[in-house]
Design a protein that fits this description.
Length: about 700
Amino acid sequence: MSRTVFLVVSGLLVLGGCSVPSLVELEAERSIPVTVDYSPSFKAGCIAMQVQDEANLANVADLQTFTDLANTAPPVLLKGLRRGNSGTRVRVTITAHEQTCAGKEVDRVMLAADLSGEGKKESLTATLNTPDEDGDGYVAILGDGKGGTDCDDSGPNAALRFPGNPEVCDALDNNCSGVADEGLDKNWYLDEDGDGVPRGPDFVLSCTSPSGNYIRYSAAGPFDCRDFGPDAAKMFPGNSEKCDNVDNDCDNIIDEEYFSVGATCNAECGGVTVCSGDGNSVVCSQDPGRYYYTDKDGDGQGAAGSNATLKCGTAAADPGTVSNDDDCDDVDPAARAGLFEVCDAIDNNCDGVLDNTALACGGTLKDVVNHHVGGSSHDWRAVSTGPSGYPVWIAGRGGKLAVRRTAGSKFESFSFGDGTGTPPDGSLPANSNNCGNANWTVSWVNSNGAVFLGGEGGLLAVHTGDTAAACGTGAVTIPTDNLTGMVGFEAGGVTTIYLTDSSGRLIKWVVGGNPQHTLVHDNNINVYGLHGLSENSLLVSGGSTGGSTGQEFLSYANGNPSALHTSLPNKGSGFANAVWMGRPDRACAVGDGGLAWRWDGATTWNRAESSGTTDDFSSVVMRYDAQNTSNPLNDQCYIVDKGSNGKLRRLTPFGWAKPLDLLPSNRANVPLRDIAITPTGELWIVGDDGRVFHYPEP
């Protein structure tokens, strides 16, 4: 049975003793120790040992190899074992290989050994010639087939020449093939204009670029048709033809693809076609004209169908203009195309339908149908609501008075002349809870829902809405002309009412068990409107007696009057009939002849642009949502007139918006006298012949 001989570097395997020959003794008899010396620079390779039976060379022990050269210094002691059936005379062959044990054999030593006898055998010595001076892992070629494959193992090009090394252009045989720089392009062509195509066909041989604009290029060409001069860099074979009056592709034809230069384009701005700046296309010398439309309300959309302003070139758009005309109402910031529809009786999204996509609005802007409200016997003159929006009180001529206590409820009558029976003569008995046969002109509702009434001849009354209590509790009579304005304030349990009359007086009425009234101011104008947000800041409107000097305004700060003059010399004839302060520095007023005015908290009232009507305006309210200061309806004024076909108009900070439709339209055919607005934006309008309009009304 054969036995493997294994290679040991320094040291022997020793086992414990016994009475028969030990394994160590047997191995010593059969081992062949060899000291192998080799070139110290040999660090990447393999040393192999093979033992053969001298009598039978085919009887070969397994090949033993040693490769840990990088971590070992020569010499090394190698020990192998002969096969168990081998004779005592053996041949030992030691070889060195380049790179790996399968690499080229670089040296060989053959030794003979006699292993007969007993005891330890003397070491054999072998010396291998394996120089690798440049340390590149390849042994130098030693001649006569000896040595390795390194064609240059010493000198300044230590490490650049060995088999398998990539060939580079350096005049050296890098891969030891026997040829330097084989397969490398060393042809350099002059490209003076730097366009990437040389003039050719001459070239310079060099591993590196010669001085000047030399490039590598195919010897087959094509070569440049112009390699120097002003346009040379634009001209070479294969270049794309451009629109630049140059033969870019060297085909002897100029600009052959751009035949439309000089044609008319964007005629509105006087353009013609020219070559583009990059020469890749034909473009118009002028951009298309830009059209801009006036955007009065600043919502980003111009008025639909309005005239456009043309701008050409770099001309800037005029201030206050935009590039579209999508707005259905350009003075109303609450209406524009694409805006979300909300409940406000306005076509917010400009689709031609009111409130159609909004959440449930609860109704539309239409008249209230109720037998206590309608009919020619009810000429309503005043409407007012509680601080939260309800109750709603309406009052008019002939002692007419009615209340709607909650949303959706019916109006209850407290009118003089209304009753439950019908006497034979056709008249109705007086309602015992009425406030008398007075012509009521103004009203105000306190936080408890009681209504304060003022009328012709200075009459005053208070109705709590109690069906069992008579009207008049706390009422006083003021010796004055017709009352034209009323506003109230509550503080510390005390209610104070301010009143104006047609003779120009401002009167203070402190309501209570012992009611008192005082004259705050008596001036030379007839006063027809009064409003304010506090006792310390009141506004009145009217005009001089006879209306000869036009519409006038006063403000009262802590009771001290101050004239607020208009900024125009023509203040309009007649009177300013109503005024409303939406916030401390914003107010609107309206008057005869369709005139409207704005106030910004300073000392001047500014007349609005023409409303398009000469009908006398009768009443005004201003909307302001303190909880949402960005509400587009803020500072908009709602106005009614006393023309034969009364209308509800809106004056925004930008002009006159589209009027709101009063439905059914055939009911808005009488003068309208008063308007009220709730904190949530509900509208109440009253007029002649029993007209009462509400938004939103189911």
